[in-house]
Amino acid sequence: APNDSLLIFDGDCGVCTAVAERLHGLDRTQAWDIRPSQAFNDKELGAIGLTRKQCSGALQAVSSSGRVRSGIWAVHAVLWRFRWGKPFVAISYIILPLLLIELIGYALIARNRTRISRWFGLRACALPLPPEHPDSP
Predict the structure, then answer these.
(1) How far is CA 4 from CA 23, 31, 68, 90, 105, in A?
(2) Eight-state DSSP code of residue 61
(3) How far is residue 45's CA from residue 64's CA, in Å, rounded to a whole number?
(4) Count of CB atoms within 10 A of residue 9's CB?
(5) Which of 7, 60, 62, 105 is 20 to 30 A away from residue 42, measured at CA?
């Protein structure tokens, strides 16, 4: 069914927004309702079992049954919905070192997304950085 699952990304992040836009173009069956976390108030997020902090820290995939997956597990949930994505997900569970690389890679990208957004000329995170942050001007 169209839009039977919800994908919540940090709309204040250039990397996240670029990936969400690309995914929206790939999702020809419209299986995912793809929206930034900023489109929800805290009460709405709470109703689906999420907090603002969770949504700003990782991609969130909410299935039609209400199951929430975060980070790389959300990526896997998305990929699994595509015929071409199933082999990638299956291989990562069969070859456990690959899954470990995915977990580390996701964490590194999430932690450095402001810097990565700037490197690629994406709209970087608009919220001001604290003065002690390494990317702060």
Answers:
(1) 15, 6, 13, 23, 28
(2) E
(3) 15
(4) 26
(5) 105
Q: Which residue has the tokens 């940090």?
A: 10
DSSP assignments along 1-47, one per residue: -TT-EEEEE-TT-HHHHHHHHHHHHH-TT--EEEEEGGGS-HHHHHH
Report whether 37 contacts 9 (CB < 8 A). Answer: yes
Neighbouring-strand partners of residue 5:
32
User: Within 13 A of 20's CA, how many CA atoms are on the CB side?
Assistant: 23
d(CA 26, CA 44): 27
At 37-83, the pLDDT tens digits run 999 999 999 999 999 999 989 999 999 899 999 999 999 999 998 89
**Is the pLDDT reported for residue 1 higher than 60?**
no
**Cα angle value 91/98/61 (rounded, 5°):** 75
* Long-range residue pairs from 62-66, CB within 8 A, at least 24 positions apart, any chain: 62/5, 62/6, 62/7, 62/8, 63/5, 64/1, 64/4, 64/5
